[in-house]
Design goal:
Elements: E1 5-10, E2 15-17, H1 20-29, E3 33-37, E4 44-48, H2 49-60, H3 67-79, E5 81-84, E6 90-92, H4 95-101, E7 105-111, E8 116-120, H5 121-130, H6 135-142
Antiparallel strand pairs: 1-7, 2-6, 3-4, 3-5, 4-8, 7-8
Length: 146
């Protein structure tokens, strides 16, 4: 499981330096292959290929005529590319996604249980302030025992 947040950088060549704690977990459990994509163009998602294949297996169960499946696949394919972690713990973020999500220079990497989310720090702070956890959010989480 990926937890917490770690500041890092995306260099001028578009390579994300994976934070040491996440890199260690990845090497122990997953290896070095990833699918990097986005569902909204505002954040980059770094999925170990093993976890991404679980999503693909679920998608394969849906009929191809399902419009939600088509929209989802269009998005994750448009922003997505396979990536391999180099010996220094870096992965290349697709250029179209770097530009769309503004993940260049200083970024924050969040652990999202089965994948990592990379976001522009300033944009994340603005969104967090504009959309705080509400009473109805707390009620929805309580229904799951949280």
């Amino acid at each position: 499981m990926f937890r917490g947040n770690h500041p890092t950088r995306v260099d001028e060549k578009g390579r994300l330096k994976l934070p040491a704690e996440f890199k260690r977990h990845i090497e122990e459990k997953y290896g070095n292959k990833f699918y990097i994509t986005s569902k909204d163009g505002k954040t980059a998602e770094v999925h170990p290929i093993e976890e991404w294949e679980k999503i693909e297996q679920k998608l394969a169960l849906m009929p191809n005529s399902n419009p939600s499946k088509k929209k989802f696949l269009d998005l994750v394919s448009y922003y997505g590319q396979m990536a391999e972690m180099d010996t220094q713990g870096r992965v290349l973020v697709p250029q179209i996604l770097r530009e769309s999500a503004k993940v260049i220079g200083d970024v924050v990497v969040f652990g999202k249980l089965t994948y990592l989310e990379v976001t522009n720090l300033d944009a994340f702070r603005q969104n967090m302030e504009a959309n705080p956890l509400t009473e109805s959010d707390a009620e929805a989480l309580a229904r799951f025992g949280l």
